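Schema walkthrough. Field components (list of strings):
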Amino acid sequence: MNSPRTEPGQPLLQVENLQKHYAVRGGLLARTTAVLRAVAGVSFEVMPGQTLGLVGESGCGKSTLGRTLMRLEEPTEGRVLFQGRNLAEAKGDELFALRRQMQMVFQDPYSSLNPRMTVGEIVREPLLVHRIGSKAEQVDRVSSLLQTVGLAPEVMTRYPNEFSGGQRQRIGVARALALDPQLVIADEPVSALDVSVQSQVLNLMLRLQRERGLAYVFISHDLSVVQHMSDRVAIMYLGRIVEMGPVDRIFAAPAHPYTRALMQAIPTPDPRRRRERVPLQGETPSPTALPDGCAFAGRCPYAVDECRRTPPALMPLDAAAAPARQHVVACVRRSELPAFDPLAGG
Amino acid sequence: MALLEIDDLRIGFETEAGLLRAIDGVSIEVEAGQTLGLVGESGCGKSVTASSVLRLVPTPPGRYLGGAIRFDGTDILQLPREQLSKLRGRDIAMIFQDPMTSLNPVFTIERQLGEVLKMRFGLDRAAARARAAEALKSVGIADPERRLDAFPHELSGGMRQRVMIAMALLCEPRLLIADEPTTALDVTVQAQILHLMRALQHKMGSALLFITHDMAVIAEMCDAVVVMYAGRVVERRPVVDIFEAPRHPYTRGLLDSIPRRAQQAKAELPTIEGTVPSLLSPPPGCRFAERCAHRAKLDAAAQRRCRDEDPALQPDGTGWVACHFPLNTAARS
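Field assembly_structure (string):
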């Protein structure tokens, strides 16, 4: 398939100040009573063949971000560039061609596959929509895609309800690969799966990345899975990225107090290393009432008055680091925090 | 005598395709004051086992096919209804993954907590309200007076789970059963809830039967662990031994599947290939045999034995294991 390829050194995906707001309506006349800023200004890049892990807890905006990237939601503000082309400006054939390059894998393999279509029809549908190949070629391609994800071509005539969660997620991956995309946005792709099946799907995604040079935006609440899958990691809190950097740096030396609290909150599969103290009190505040300053200040053990006044910008920890090694954090106290202790409480 | 003894319990469900044997000869003991973890993947029967203790398995389609559940020596399965409801909420309380299972959406929090207090301690309204407010405070709910007047849907998921814990603990049960209590919660809220459960359990000396699919949560919470697979108990051991010297290949596989810090990023993760056998017609031998990586290394006669002969749960010094050829207890690789 002849599709535009990325120039060397050029990011595959560039996201600039992306925002997605929702009007919250209430009262007698359903007037807008508040604005929910689900994504409140997010910028990042994804290089070809690389994985950006997007982590955060419920309500942080990571799923809305994924859907906005795919244009399943219209952004309120900001730009998404794919191979340097602004998706909002692309029209006709060019938009069609660009869209082929980005595909999505969803969390719930039980609801994301149409139960009335056979597996063959599900995987073939993108080829039909994009009018790629003759019928015979399409069927051949479906058969080879199913084999690629570890399913027998014979399953083509069967229906999704005949398959387990892990097998359904393989079908979802086969469908996402049908158009030979360069970028797959995977929103919690293994969260609904048992741990033994989860590792099968993760291995499949890693193999596809090696073989096809796929780039992933891997959205998950599970830090250990993100650590395993990612080259770079972005941590989101209330619609913003609070920290982003190379996976090894983020996990060895997390700099934002929220990233640290997240890591300290994960139970360790080692009964000899139990936590004695709770890392973080309180719950995420409502995204309709974002505070003026740092959104995390209300729960942060290190917050000072300045934190509550101005929202902190993402700043490099080491301005001299190479672009691929940049580690940025949105915390005014970034240089004053004590060294990170994974088992400590806040 | 253990506080809770589940003895050779068998429960099936009538389905269109026949009788599904969800749990098929499960024996579990919980000692007073102990935290026992019950772990396994979907369909292993852990939640059915937990629900059976309070006879919450719906019949039909469920059917108790055999065995006994003894609480303090009394067989719960033989208990008349009215005695069973006395036991519920007084001696045994249960917390579910979804708090809305047990919270009534049309009643305020005060009313729901008040019921417990009226039933258990015969308190009047004012006394019950004061006690309920105190309980909410003890589970870390700020502004408890205001929350008492709230309806369940006005609270966050974490807060509802705290209310459930408060409600369960108000009756000071001797046994608390928690079925995936933190699975639906964010990790920072999970940490708070687990900490809270441990602190309150310690204070009251209740026994805790903790059901989860998450081995890391087991490591954090439990004294001993029961691993279930396809309706059976396959291994039981003190928590440190389960993690450091598992002897059933399934337990080992579960532990190996967890992505860990020490692993090389993007390296192939160990998996358990294949899928769980159908409980409509389980295989005659070991139910894990088809997926067992350890079995593949055995000679042909041994492999046949795994396939044909059902392994019994046998004591082995530190615990119990149901495997013809258990793993060596040498340290994990």
